[in-house]
Automatic annotation (TrEMBL), chain A:
Gene3D superfamilies: Cobalamin-binding domain, Methionine synthase domain. This is Cobalamin-binding protein. One of its GO terms (cellular component) is cytosol. Keywords: Cobalt, Metal-binding. Residues 91-215 form the B12-binding domain. Residues 1-91 form the B12-binding N-terminal domain. GO terms for molecular function: cobalamin binding; cobalt ion binding; methionine synthase activity.
Automatic annotation (TrEMBL), chain B:
Signal peptide: none annotated. It comes from Methanoliparum thermophilum. It comes from the Archaea. This is Uroporphyrinogen decarboxylase (URO-D) domain-containing protein. One of its GO terms (molecular function) is uroporphyrinogen decarboxylase activity. Pfam families: URO-D.
Amino acid sequence: MIKENNILEELTRLIVDGDDEKIKEITKKALNTGIDPYIIIDALNKGMKIVSKRYEDRDIALPELILAGDAFQASMDIIKPKIKRKSEKKVGRLVIGTVQYDIHTLGHELVKTMMEVEGFECWDMGGDVPDEKFIEKVKEVNADILGLSALMTTSMPKQKDVIDALKKEGIRDRVKVIVGGAPVSQEWADKIGADGYGKDAIEATIVAKKLLKIE
Amino acid sequence: MEEMSSMERVTAVLNHKIPDRVPVIFWALTIGAREAGIKMFEYSTDGKKMAEGQLNYLRRYGVDAVIPGSGIAEVAEMFGTKTKYYDTMYDTPAIGETVVKKPDDWEKLELSITPGISASLEATLIIREETNNEVPVMGTVVSPLTLATWIRGMAETIRDTRKNPDELHKGLNIITDIERDMVDAQISLGTEIFFMPITRASRDLFTDKQYKEFGIPYDLKVLESLKSNYVIGHVCGNYPMLDTIIERYPLSAVNWWDRGTKYSLKDGRDMKERYNSKVVLVGGLDQNKTLIMGTPKDVENEARDAIEQVAIDGEFILSGGCELSAITPPENILAAVETAKRYGKYPIGWIV
Ligand code: B12
C-alpha cells in the first residue's frame, strides 16, 4: 500500500515536472505492480490540475504547461491499451478544433487534454478547419460536444458560421457547442447561440460536464 | 496644412523633441489588401499592389508612417517555411509548414529571397518615392526567439528549450546573424526606422529565467547592429516583460497592449522614471476592442485619455497595442488621427 502510494505520488510529480521519459518507466512499473489503471489516471489528473491551476495563477509559463501535457499523453499512451478491455467509462464524445483561417492550436489542445482527464473521448481536428469538416466529424462520431476555438478577432465569426451550418444540416440540437479562445467571451457565446463558453481549460471541462448533466 | 511633415513629426518625437502634434502610427500590414480592394495573396506577393494598398491607407487616413509587409508568414518564409494563403481579403497568411522539423535542422538554416519579401522591399521603394521621403516607411526586424517559434512551431521550440537547448542555441545564433544581414540590406535601401516585434517576452509564454537564456542575449545582439537607427520595439502578449525591456533594451520607443495588460501608459511612464529611460511610449488605443467594435466617439475618448495620461512632455506616439486588424472600420482609424490633430497639438494643456 505504501509502495503504491509512493508510485502514485511520483506519477503526479512527474506530470508537474513535465518529464515525459521517466513517466513512461514509472507508468509501466505501476501497471506491473497491479495498480488499477483508473487509479493511475487519477494520479495523472491530479498533476494536470495542479499545473493548470498554477498556469492560470501565472506561477508557471507555457513551457511547463506544454511539457506537463506531453508527460500526460506519454503515460496515457501506455495505459490506454490496458483499459480498452474493461468496459469503456467514457463520459462523453468531444470533437474539438480551431476554426478556419486560424492556426492557433495550443489552446484547444490543452482543452482536449483536460477533457481527456475528465474522461471524455476526444477527436482533435487541428487548426484551420473548414466548417463542413466539423459537421462531417460530428456526424461521423456522433459527438455530444463540439468545441470551437478562435484566437483572433478576425476568425471569431467563423464560430458562428459553424453553428449556422449545424442548423442548416438539421443537427444543431444533437450536439452542444462550446466556444473559447482569448478574444472570445460569454457575451460573444450568447450572441452567436453557443451553448457554453470556457475561459480556460479547467472551465471548459466544468461547462462541458454541466451541459451533459454529468455530476 | 500642418506644420510638420510626418517624417519630421515622427523623428522629432524619436529624438525627444516636441513635435507639432502627437503622431499616429499603426502596425498595419494586412489592412493594405482591403485598401487596395484585392485578395491577400495578390497583395502579399505583388510589390506594386502592396504599395498601392499601403499608399491608399496612408492617404485615406493621414497616418504618420507605414510598414510594408503581410505578416509573420512572409518573414518566416525566407527561412524556408511554406505559406498558406486564404482566398479572402481579410485573413492573414499563415505559416503552413514549418522548416525545423527535428533538432538537427536548427544548424541547417539559411536565407532565401521569396516573392513575399521581394514584394515588401519593392513596395518600400515605391512608397518612399511617391511620398518624397516625407513619410517614414519603416523596416522590420524580428526578435530571434520569436522567429524561432515561427519556423519550428511554438510547442516544439518550447520542447527544445528543455530537451535540445544546445541545438536551439545554434539555431538562434544563425537566426541572429541572418537578421543582422537583413538589417544591413534594409539600411542600404534607405530605411532608418525599424519596427521590432519582440513577441515572446511575455510571462504567460516564458518565465523570466527562460527568456533570459533564450531571448535577451539574441535580442540585444540584433539591436547592436541597429545602433545608429531608430527602433520601435513591440512587446506582445498578455503579460509583457515591459520592465525588463525598458530597463535593458536600447530602444527608441516601446509599444505594448496598454489597454489589455496590467501596465497602463502611466505605468510605462513610471517605469521610465525608475530606470532612468527616455524611451518613447507608443499606444493608447485598444486594437481588439475599441478600434474594432467601438464607435468613432469611443476611439476619440480613448485617444484623449491616452494623450492626457502621458503626452504632455512629448515622447508619445498614439497607436494600437498590436497589429491593426484588417476589419477595423475606416471611421475609427480616421477618428484616431482626427483626435491627435485636435487634442494632441503641442503645447498640450490638461484637458478639462
Ligand atoms: C503562440 C501564438 C502564435 C503561434 C501559434 C502556435 C500554435 N500552434 O498555436 C503562431 C506563431 C503560429 C501565431 C501566428 C499568428 N498570430 Co498569434 N499568438 C500566439 C500567442 C502569443 C499565444 C497563444 C497561445 O498559444 N496561448 C496559450 C494558450 C494556452 O492559451 P489560449 O490559446 O488562450 O487558450 C486557452 C483559453 O483561451 C481557452 N480556450 C482556447 N480554445 C478553447 C476552445 C474551447 C472550446 C474552450 C471552451 C476554451 C478554449 O483554454 C485555453 C487553455 O487555458 C497569442 C498572444 C496571447 N498571449 O494570447 C498571439 C495572438 C493570438 N496572435 C495574433 C496574431 C495577430 C497572429 C498572426 C495573424 C500574426 C501575423 N501578423 O501574421 C498569426 C496567425 C496567422 C493565422 N492565419 O492564423 C494576435 C491575434 C490578434 C487578433 N486579431 O485578435 C494575438 C492575440 C497576439 C496579439 N496580442 O495581437 N501566433
